[in-house]
């Protein structure tokens, strides 16, 4: 098969991840303290204002939901993140783009009005949806930098086909999307910018695959039942916050760091906050390698093998998570050899661990 010229011309930037990779913050504990402070502030605001407060104590939600006109100020959401992905601005400084067409017939020449047409653009865009819709993608959705996918106010499902890929791009926000039943894609051409498309080999079939991505924030999504991971971040990805998501019905939930030998993942810094790890989950909530992982205020109500695990000397800072162990003695063990956490039944706080 003839390979288009543009494939060669533009391959180089794709293979130069240092171009977009951000360096890790020097003092991750400082980011942890900031998260602590914003949670404390939100909790105090709620307590002191009582019924006058719209607050829930969740600093991310209170940041935008307390604005009755949030629909008119959608881009303010970009300033509501906490943790390592806090500086992901997505399409904050760009135009609003309204998706009107759920189809995805041609991944190389996407039609205006489709989600794929929006995410590949070079300019920043804040992408919203005209109505409820289910989008069955034909191939992976390759996002370009500075994009927000904002499903607030409508019910949007990305399901039944390949799902979202954040590869060597930066400043991505994905909010309020139902991502499920994701399948493998590949052995196909897919466009990733107005001027470039390339050949994709078979993909894993993740819900959200972050590969060499930075400044990424995934918030308020529901994720379930995908072919590989629900959210995986590998290959030098960093500056990520995964918050307020509802994850269910899946085996390998969240892989952060692909292999023990891939040392670049030492720079990986991820905040996992306010997620509900719910029914039908088996393992990897998350499974961490090399980097620094702040796992804070999550609710674990189901795991069949283990909840939090790590290898290759990760730092896993686990605070304020609630573990409601299934009624099976094995699930209540703390395994120290490779740092599996999943035992503190209804812990209020603490449970910190250094691997
Ligand atoms: C957050 O900060 C408060 C006050 O400084 C401290 O008492 C608490 O232990 C901290 N919590 C965590 C989870 O670090
Ligand atoms: C918490 O509140 C204090 C006092 O209003 C403020 O100075 C500080 O910046 C807030 N911290 C965070 C992380 O929001």
From TrEMBL:
Needed cofactors: Ca(2+)
Cleaved signal peptide residues: 1-22
Chain segments annotated as coiled-coil in the UniProt record: none
Listed EC numbers: 4.2.2.2
Pfam families cross-referenced by the UniProt entry: Pectate_lyase_4 (PF00544)
Keyword terms, alphabetized: Calcium, Lyase, Metal-binding, Signal
Pathway, per record: Glycan metabolism; pectin degradation; 2-dehydro-3-deoxy-D-gluconate from pectin: step 2/5
Keyword Metal-binding appears in the UniProt entry: yes
Catalytic activity: Eliminative cleavage of (1->4)-alpha-D-galacturonan to give oligosaccharides with 4-deoxy-alpha-D-galact-4-enuronosyl groups at their non-reducing ends
Cofactor note: Binds 1 Ca(2+) ion. Required for its activity.
Keyword Signal: yes
GO molecular function: metal ion binding; pectate lyase activity
Residue ranges of domain Pectate lyase in the record: 132-329
Classification via Gene3D superfamilies: Single-stranded right-handed beta-helix, Pectin lyase-like
GO biological process: pectin catabolic process
Listed InterPro entries: AmbAllergen, Pec_lyase, Pectin_lyas_fold, Pectin_lyase_fold/virulence, PEL
Stated family: Belongs to the polysaccharide lyase 1 family.
Protein name: Pectate lyase
């Amino acid at each position: 098969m003839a390979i288009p010229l543009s494939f060669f011309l533009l391959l180089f930037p794709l293979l130069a991840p240092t171009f977009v990779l951000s360096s890790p913050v020097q003092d991750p504990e400082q980011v942890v303290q900031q998260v602590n402070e914003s949670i404390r502030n939100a909790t105090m605001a709620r307590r002191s204002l009582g019924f006058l407060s719209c607050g829930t104590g969740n600093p991310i939600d209170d940041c935008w939901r307390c604005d009755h006109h949030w629909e008119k100020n959608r881009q303010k959401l970009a300033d509501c993140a906490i943790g390592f992905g806090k500086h992901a601005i997505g399409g904050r400084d760009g135009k609003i783009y309204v998706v009107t067409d759920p189809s995805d017939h041609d991944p190389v020449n996407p039609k205006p009005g489709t989600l794929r047409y929006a995410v590949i653009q070079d300019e920043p865009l804040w992408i919203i949806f005209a109505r409820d819709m289910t989008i069955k993608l034909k191939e992976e959705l390759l996002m370009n930098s500075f994009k927000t996918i904002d499903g607030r106010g409508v019910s949007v499902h990305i399901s039944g086909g390949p799902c979202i890929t954040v590869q060597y791009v930066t400043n991505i926000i994905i909010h309020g999307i139902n991502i499920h039943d994701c399948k493998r894609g590949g052995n196909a051409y897919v466009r990733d910018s107005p001027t470039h498309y390339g050949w994709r080999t078979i993909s894993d079939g993740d819900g959200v695959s972050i590969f060499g991505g930075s400044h990424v924030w995934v918030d308020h999504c529901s994720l379930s039942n995908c072919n590989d991971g629900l959210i995986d971040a590998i290959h030098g990805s960093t500056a990520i916050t995964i918050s307020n998501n509802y994850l269910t019905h899946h085996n390998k939930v969240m892989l952060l760091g692909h292999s023990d030998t891939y040392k670049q993942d030492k720079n990986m810094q991820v905040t996992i906050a306010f997620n509900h790890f719910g029914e039908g989950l088996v393992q990897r909530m998350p499974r961490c390698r090399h980097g620094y992982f702040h796992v804070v205020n999550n609710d674990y109500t189901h795991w069949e093998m283990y909840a939090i695990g790590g290898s290759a000397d990760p730092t896993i800072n686990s605070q304020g998570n609630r573990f409601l162990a299934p009624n099976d003695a094995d699930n209540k063990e703390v395994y120290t050899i490779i740092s599996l956490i999943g035992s503190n039944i209804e812990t209020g706080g603490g449970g910190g661990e250094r691997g």
